[in-house]
């Protein structure tokens, strides 16, 4: 088989003269500069856009919050406006209920007239009743002095009178008035006189006499005992078998006693009704002494104690321990005072009364002038 011989294309064509290529080292710096500028410009534009967008969003949110605040304020203003309208309506309703101006003026004049009448009436009442509370206090001081004088004269109560005089002096001190100097001076003298007197213990004396009454109700008569001192005939016996007559005499001596040296202190034996009567007489004498002690009667007290002592001595033996102790107590109580010489408060009372009269004169005259002036002002 025959092969067709194709022409060889590997024959190199005739190449044209090559053109000179640009230098890549020269083109690279210029292209880099252009691309960097564009990138920076794009970045700046993007940053500016982001900033503008963020600022716009912030402004939008600020406007929204401000709008919300304004809306809330408008609602508050609206509610306040409604409240004010309601208050205005209420005030208008109240004003509508008020009387007219002429009627209010008439009422004001009536109130003014009533106040004037009340002041004049108060002045008259003060004139009648003593002008002020100070006058009442001064009247109380006078009453305290009268009461102290009564306590001294009726009961001889030194302690109560002293407290009453001190109360009167305290009232005068509260007045802070130089015109009360004389009255306070007399009160000081009376108080010093009261302090120099001791208050008798009438209550204690009464209780001691009551205790003696209880003891008197229990007194018993002491039977006299015969004691052989060897002076009798059978007192010489020696107690042997030969003392038969002496024993017989001792038995008989219980019924019959012969004593040539009898003591006067031996009293007859009291028994039964006689002893009861003696106890009653002694109790009555002590009771009378109690009454005299409470009422400050020294003469009655001394007489009652003496009578009780006489009953005791006349009916009971001195050798009796009970009657002896009771007699000693009666002697002690007889010396105790039951009354004192009380000071006289007449000068103090007179000084306080003089001060009250001096104080009332100017006050009463001034009030009369005020009352007369008020009456003349009311007359047309």
Give a brief outline of the structure.
This protein has 11 helices and no strands.
Structure characterization notes:
Among the domains are: 122-198 and 341-378, IL-4 antagonist (De novo design) like domain (Four Helix Bundle (Hemerythrin (Met), subunit A), Up-down Bundle); 200-221 and 267-339. 72% of the residues lie in helices and 0% in strands. It has eleven helices and no strands. Helix 9 runs antiparallel to helix 10. The longest helix has 74 residues, at 24-97. The chain starts with 23 loop residues before the first helix and ends with a helix.
Average pLDDT? 78
For the secondary structure, the number of strands is: 0
Report the helical percentage: over 70%
The end-to-end distance, rounded to whole angstroms, is 178 Å
CATH architecture of the domain at 122-198 and 341-378: Up-down Bundle
Number of helices: 11
Rg over C-alpha atoms, rounded to the nearest angstrom: 66 Å
Q: What top-tier CATH class of the domain at 122-198 and 341-378 fits best? A: Mainly Alpha
Low-confidence stretches: 1-17, 229-237, 264-272, 363-371, 373-380
* CATH topology grouping of the domain at 122-198 and 341-378: Four Helix Bundle (Hemerythrin (Met), subunit A)
Structural class: mainly alpha
The percent range for strand residues is under 5%
Name of the CATH superfamily of the domain at 122-198 and 341-378: IL-4 antagonist (De novo design) like domain
């Amino acid at each position: 088989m025959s092969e067709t011989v194709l022409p060889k294309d590997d024959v190199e064509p005739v190449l044209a003269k090559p053109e000179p290529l640009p230098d890549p080292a020269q083109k690279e710096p210029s292209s880099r500069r252009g691309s960097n500028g564009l990138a920076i410009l794009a970045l700046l534009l993007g940053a500016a856009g982001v900033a503008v967008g963020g600022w716009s969003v912030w402004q939008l949110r600020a406007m929204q919050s401000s709008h919300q605040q304004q809306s809330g304020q408008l609602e508050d203003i609206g509610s306040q406006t409604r409240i004010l309208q309601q208050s205005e309506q209420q005030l208008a309703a109240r004003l509508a209920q008020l009387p007219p101006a002429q009627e209010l003026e008439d009422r004001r004049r009536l109130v003014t007239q009533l106040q004037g009448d009340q002041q004049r009436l108060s002045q008259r009442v003060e004139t009648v009743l003593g002008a002020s509370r100070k006058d009442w206090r001064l009247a109380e001081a006078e009453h305290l002095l009268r009461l102290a004088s009564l306590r001294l004269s009726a009961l001889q109560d030194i302690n109560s009178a002293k407290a009453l005089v001190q109360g009167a002096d305290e009232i005068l001190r509260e007045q802070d008035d130089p015109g009360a100097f004389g009255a306070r001076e007399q009160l000081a003298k009376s108080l010093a006189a009261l302090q120099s007197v001791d208050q008798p213990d009438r209550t204690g004396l009464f209780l001691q006499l009551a205790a003696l009454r209880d003891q008197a109700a229990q007194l018993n008569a002491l039977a006299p005992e015969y004691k052989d001192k060897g002076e009798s005939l059978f007192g010489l016996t020696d107690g042997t078998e030969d003392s038969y007559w002496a024993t017989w005499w001792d038995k008989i001596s219980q019924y019959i006693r012969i004593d040539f040296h009898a003591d006067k202190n031996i009293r007859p034996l009291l028994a039964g009704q006689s002893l009861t009567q003696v106890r009653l007489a002694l109790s009555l004498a002590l009771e009378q002494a109690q009454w005299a002690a409470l009422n400050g009667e020294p003469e009655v007290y001394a007489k009652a104690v003496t009578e009780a002592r006489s009953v005791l001595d006349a009916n009971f033996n001195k050798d009796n321990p009970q009657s002896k102790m009771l007699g000693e107590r009666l002697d002690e109580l007889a010396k105790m005072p039951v009354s004192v010489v009380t000071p006289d408060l007449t000068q103090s009372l007179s000084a306080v009364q003089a001060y009250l009269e001096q104080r009332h004169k100017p006050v009463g005259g001034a009030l009369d002038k005020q009352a007369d002036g008020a009456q003349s002002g009311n007359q047309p």
